[in-house]
Amino acid sequence: MASDCEPALNQAEGRNPTLERYLGALREAKNDSEQFAALLLVTKAVKAGDIDAKTRRRIFDAVGFTFPNRLLTTKEAPDGCPDHVLRALGVALLACFCSDPELAAHPQVLNKIPILSTFLTTRGDPDDAARRSMIDDTYQCLTAVAGTPRGPRHLIAGGTVSALCQAYLGHGYGFDQALALLVGLLAAAETQCWKEAEPDLLAVLRGLSEDFQKAEDASKFELCQLLPIFLPPTTVPSECLRDLQAGLARILGSKLSSWQRNPALKLAARLAHACGSDWIPAGSSGSKFLALLVNLACVEVRLALEETGTEVKEDVVTACYALMELGIQECTRCEQSLLKEPQKVQLVSIMKEAIGAVIHYLQQVGPEKQKEPFVFASVRILGAWLAEETSSLRKEVCQLLPFLVRYAKTLYEEAEEANDLSQQVATLAISPTTPGPTWPGDALRLLLPGWCHLTVEDGPREILIKEGAPSLLCKYFLQQWELTSPGHDTSVLPDSVEIGLQTCCHIFLNLVVTAPGLIKRDACFTSLMNTLMTSLPALVQQQGRLLLAANVATLGLLMARLLSTSPALQGTPASRGFFAAAILFLSQSHVARATPGSDQAVLALSPDYEGIWADLQELWFLGMQAFTGCVPLLPWLAPAALRSRWPQELLQLLGSVSPNSVKPEMVAAYQGVLVELARANRLCREAMRLQAGEETASHYRMAALEQCLSEP
């Protein structure tokens, strides 16, 4: 057998006389008995790992695959010979052949994978040396196949993953080899492994988690490194989460060296990435554990990044970033937070110091490092912080803004050149594998929420404008919008694309209000306006995208007020289509709803608007105000509104509901639109009068409308 063969090659001569004699006997064998005897002699003469490729090939040429195939499948052994001895000999020969990578990928080896996999779970005498040797040779064959380019795929298809799981859980001879091979297959083809053998892999995870929870020796630190590999891409079983949290709590609550603590932090980060805070129990123990996690992460980040010239353990710090991000989420959660208010205050203070260290690190980053994953991870955690907190570290953030704009622009342009839009919405792995020479990422998506806050403030906004952020954001918006346009399957897009578009709209809204001159003079906003006009008509018709439509409509209306002299807004088909869609969005928000026991209906939200009104209402009121401002600037708009019958239907709606059900802010918004339409166009005034406009104005105390309609 491969592991029992003795080396006898004379390196100087390149030939082993004994082996040559045995190979000759093998070639001259006249029947199975003679061939079997010769094979036993050959396997005793050499060790597969100690012969050169030329000799191995000569053995293969003498033996071939036919006889090993018969040995593996035979069910009749000679008298006095256990049947597994023949299979063991067949596996030993395959193990010898598989030492050659070319032979390991041979179809005659690959088609033995199902048979070899069954040997891993076959029960027998654990003290039988031949059986143990056969198991070793089986693992040698499977490991050699796994090392070939297409080997993992063949092993997974051949049922090897399930067999390895069962072999490990059985804790029989060689179970440690089963675990090592499982680790390699998961690293090479994680998704396919879970697809083919999820129940068995979950059973292994349960076993490892239970061992981790019970471990009192150094094995718990080894399990910390092993467990992340076995976390599923879908839901982690609750019993595993309980065991993992309990084990981590014991480890991290002790005084540890860095080599003991770091794997635990990385495991906690993987759990945070996969499950958020759901794996942490509620109550005092859970809040203390979460506070400990975030504290340790912040200390590690400061130690790593504040010391100039020290080598940064990027995988550990990246894991700490994930734990800080979990802390940020819990500190900003209003309902069902694991943390109490004093804990939140303390953690925010600690995280502020760690974010200061991140800013310090990013200030040292040169152009040659801008494509490295760790820089991206550092920008990500800073973006998560700025999304919630921009008042602290303001000076440091403002000093870093030029770098952030340049960095985001560099990554955006690289991804654009590669035409790889899918990479632009990818998230950074908590434990990334070794990156390739280029590593494109969507840094802008991470920075948008923070920039949305910063564009409200004079100082940061001026820096962003000076560095060209608005132009970059326009290009980014137009590019991301292409992903949602007809011809693209929007069902496979991550939510981050639509959320990013909405956040871009919020930034542009801030600029419209605070820097109107920029909107008028920068050509990129003209392109943006054209896209908004051509996109809104289709967008308002799409189910489930009302919030994005509200952002697009409101932004377009506000920009139209500033760009009213543009040729594109002078009653062109695109501009007419846009305003018709904007009217549709504004007019369909409310309906008359009957109330039990009352003869008069009340004003109520439309079903589509009701569930998201908290996020929508500010945009709706702003849109009403912007539309009102556009009417006197665009002479064609009032007749177009009249043709849509919006003013008539609006008055009809108000006349059919109880005035007491209409809030004062709604009355003001409706009156603003009606007054401007009436002032702008005589036909509008006449249509309103025919719709009992004066009476309705009186009922709702709309003095301005009542006066306007009373005039000729």
TrEMBL record:
<dbReference type="InterPro" id="IPR008709">
    <property type="entry name" value="Neurochondrin"/>
</dbReference>
<dbReference type="GO" id="GO:0030425">
    <property type="term" value="C:dendrite"/>
</dbReference>
<dbReference type="InterPro" id="IPR016024">
    <property type="entry name" value="ARM-type_fold"/>
</dbReference>
<comment type="similarity">
    <text>Belongs to the neurochondrin family.</text>
</comment>
<dbReference type="GO" id="GO:0048168">
    <property type="term" value="P:regulation of neuronal synaptic plasticity"/>
</dbReference>
<protein>
    <recommendedName>
        <fullName>Neurochondrin</fullName>
    </recommendedName>
</protein>
<dbReference type="Pfam" id="PF05536">
    <property type="entry name" value="Neurochondrin"/>
</dbReference>
<dbReference type="GO" id="GO:0031175">
    <property type="term" value="P:neuron projection development"/>
</dbReference>
